Amino acid sequence: MDRDALAEFLLRRREALTPADVGLSTGARRRTAGLRREEVAQLATMSTDYYTRLEQRRGPQPSVQILAALARALRLTEDERDYLFRLCGYSAPDRAHATEYVRPGILRVLDRLHDTPAFVVSLLDEVLVQNDASRALIGDASGLEGFQRSGIYRWFADPEQERKRYRAVDHARQSRALVGALRAAYGVMGGRSRAGEIVAELSSRSPEFVRLWEAHEVGRRFEQHKVMVHPELGEIEVDCQALFTEDESQALIVLTAAPGSEAASKLEFLRVLGTQTV
């Protein structure tokens, strides 16, 4: 691990960004145009102390997960992300199958969506990054680890908890859609990938999954209109729009409600309330 080069790289990339580049307010008393250390830490969901130690050449070797979070926070290109990984002693991620890296163009769109729930998902339905409105509506995904990061896995492995966000009448349709998406990911990533591991794990845990998997339905489908169920506000009707990356490995999901509707009022209430309870 090259601590000197890492510290300089992080500093220069931080200085090259403005708050507007990452969807933050400029503020009245900002002396420099670049981001502050605490802002980078916030974007990467890590402590300011930990990030500061990296810039001061005192930090331990960051994990792959930490580096992926820093690459997103600093809006690194794929070449810059690969360079960051190599500075820290890791091989560059396989670009064909990497799902953690979110392209700056998608992040710039997400940064400008403050008033409506929006989030980026991988082939395996892992929420890679989300805005505050999304956290308020569907929950905060930043603390999930392992297979639990995949919404497909949680849907079948922990149905009592995961399916609370959907009406019971929509469960069968959602199950088919998720298995079809996993089948598509399996075809792209291969049987020895994380997709294959999820298939093996769910096959041993869920008869429902086995039945649907054997149907061999393939395809990523996002319903254009759906009803989300919030634990305190109840049903919220939303329209769903998906913006795919060029290779279709990720999708930016945006949920909106018709202006003036009850659902729009609920989303506005959630935006103001955030993740607090009513």
Automatic annotation (TrEMBL):
Which InterPro entries does this one have? Cro/C1-type_HTH, Lambda_DNA-bd_dom_sf, MLTR_LBD
- Which Gene3D superfamilies does the annotation name? 3.30.450.180, lambda repressor-like DNA-binding domains
Every HTH cro/C1-type domain range? 33-81
Question: Which Pfam families does its entry note?
Answer: HTH_31, MLTR_LBD
Q: Which PANTHER family match?
A: BLL4672 PROTEIN (PTHR35010:SF2), BLL4672 PROTEIN-RELATED (PTHR35010)
Protein name, as recorded: Helix-turn-helix domain-containing protein
Species, as recorded: Microbacterium algeriense
